[in-house]
Amino acid sequence: MGVSQIAENTEFVAWWGAIVATLVLLWEVFKWFQSGPKIRSRVTLNTHYEDGEVIKKENTEDGEVITYQDYCHLELVNVGKMPTTIIGVKATSKMNGKRDMQMEVTQQVFAPHFGKHLPHVLSPGEVWSCRLPMDRYACLFQYGIPELQVRVSHRTKPIVVCATKAANKAAQSDARTARGWP
User: Fold this and answer.
1) Count of beta carbons in the 10 Å neighbourhood of residue 114
2) Nearest Cα to 48, choosing from 65, 62, 67, 32?
3) Does the predicted TM-score (pTM) go above 0.85?
4) What is the C-alpha separation between 52 and 68, in angstroms, rounded?
5) pLDDT reported for residue 111
6) Fewer Cβ atoms within 10 Å of its own Cβ: the N or the C terminal residue of the chain?
7) In a 3-state reduction of DSSP, which class is residue 114?
8) How far is CA 75 from CA 3, 134, 180, in A?
9) 46 has pLDDT over 80
10) How many whole angstroms from its chain centre is CA 112?
11) Reduced to 3 states, what is the DSSP secondary structure of residue 23?
12) How far apart are CA 166 and CA 172, in angstroms?
């Protein structure tokens, strides 16, 4: 084996090592970006709770019938690897055709579940949920499609959560019927 063959093999091993080291570095950078908190969200409209507000009680021949308040249920799950803090939550609706105008339902109207009041540190794998009375959510339909905004510590902009178009359409129809709108 000559000197040129050894140099050629050495150069090949050096290039191979450089490529593998670069790939490992890129993988570590990718893992680092993926290691933070990640929030998965879900909105459910027209939900009932046994501890919710009682709208009416009616005695029938089959027994007592209780009608509960309808709610908009918001659920957040930290599926990431680091904790984050939920700072605040609100419901908004931008006025149709007006970019700078919006209506809001503030955090005080939301009722957190299981005593997890805001601000709340959301650990990996933990669930945080709250409810908003459906009539408050439905009021926002006058100004556009409602959206829920959640402020968290690891992001500068809020997480925007919307109900599905079908759920919003059904809720909007229910709101119009209840209020006597066309």
Assistant:
1) 9
2) 67
3) no
4) 6
5) 92
6) C
7) coil
8) 68, 15, 31
9) yes
10) 14
11) helix
12) 10
